[in-house]
Design a protein that fits this description.
Structural class: alpha/beta
Number of strands: 18
Number of domains: 1
Number of helices: 9
CATH architecture: Alpha-Beta Barrel
Order of helices and strands: HEEEEEEHEHEEEHEHEEEEEHEHEHH
Radius of gyration: 20 Å
Largest sheet: 8 strands, parallel, barrel
Helix content: 25-40%
CATH topology: TIM Barrel
Distance between the termini: 29 Å
CATH class: Alpha Beta
């Protein structure tokens, strides 16, 4: 009986420790109740996962990227498993911004989500058109994420995020079209030689901060058929890209101190999220983990608080750049 009482007291003590951890974070001008954000492309356009993962319990939800126009995405086959991760060539299917505003945004709002809208385009004007449409609902969003990992038809299909100048042009157009008051985050690609140079041009163009990173270019072969598994190749996500994401976050955080960063890539548990913040991220995106566990983002948010309580960290936001201070009891 004494041992059972001790275990119950220990559990109550652990819960009390977690409760005194301040999980709120500041993402530039955006205040979030905790640092965990559902990454774009993994939570759906609206409330598709809300019955399994309450969006109100997350810091924010970044929706799947939408363009100014409807788009069906790539033909099947679009997704395949890899060793420890996933390769996808989904092709950004979506209903278009106007339909998203009419149908999907209200569904998330009813659930209490803090919404980061994600947009994409093939031209600078495409980005501007999508941002202009969202300007009318800017007060209903916490931020706008600009997915720059798209082929730029104005630059012979070079990906926007692979070029400092294309990145600058797209972000400048979005900032101008969205108007004042809506924070803009540039989602950058790791498939570059110098991600700092590209992040700097995004900030120069008016970006509030950066989302680091998008998927890593990859390829898979079926040895039996001797053919590519995905005809176009695809973007690798999941645990294998975590060290790449950490490097990008670390480099940009050191080169551009004070610029808010959403660190994403390979985060599967609370310790991963803590490491991302210690590298310099102000908030952490959870993506591919959701496909294996739809509640992953909520679990990770809880695990971050537990880690902080166990390590005497009173404020989660002070993990960023290793400034964590002890809990006050």
């Amino acid at each position: 009986m004494r041992r059972q009482r001790h275990r119950a007291t220990t559990r109550r003590s652990a819960r009390a420790d977690v409760e005194i951890v301040d999980t709120s974070v500041e993402l530039g001008p955006v205040s979030l109740p905790n640092p965990i954000i559902a990454a774009s492309g993994t939570f759906g356009h609206g409330d598709e996962l809300a019955d399994l993962c309450d969006p109100a319990g997350l810091g924010a939800v970044t929706t799947k990227s939408v363009a100014a126009f409807p788009w069906p995405g790539n033909p099947a086959r679009r997704v395949t498993a890899t060793a420890g991760g996933m390769l996808n060539a989904v092709g950004l299917p979506g209903p278009g911004v106007e339909a998203w505003i009419a149908r999907d945004l209200p569904a998330l709002e009813v659930r209490g989500a803090r919404v980061i809208a994600s947009i994409w385009g093939r031209t600078v004007d495409d980005y501007a058109d999508a941002a202009r449409a969202l300007a009318s609902v800017a007060h209903r969003l916490v931020a706008l994420e600009v997915n720059l990992s798209c082929p730029n038809v104005e630059a012979r299909l070079d990906v926007f995020a692979h070029s400092p100048e294309s990145t600058h042009a797209a972000i400048a157009a979005v900032v101008d079209a969205a108007g004042p008051g809506l924070p803009v985050f540039a989602k950058l690609s790791p498939n570059v030689t110098d991600i700092v140079a590209i992040a700097r041009r995004a900030v120069d163009a008016g970006a509030t901060g950066c989302t680091l990173i998008n998927t890593v270019m990859g390829f898979a072969i079926d040895a039996e058929s001797r053919t590519p598994v995905l005809e176009r190749g695809g973007g690798l996500s999941g645990a294998p890209i975590k060290p790449i994401a950490l490097r990008a976050v670390w480099e940009v955080a050191h080169a551009l101190p004070g610029v808010p960063i959403i660190g994403t890539g390979g985060v599967h548990d609370g310790r991963d999220a803590v490491e991302m913040m210690l590298a310099g991220a102000h908030a952490v995106g959870v993506g591919t983990a959701t496909f294996a566990d739809p509640r992953a983002a909520m679990r990770i948010a809880s695990e971050v608080a537990q880690w902080c309580a166990a390590h005497g960290v009173g404020k989660v936001r002070e993990l960023t750049r290793g400034r964590a201070s002890p809990c006050q009891t």
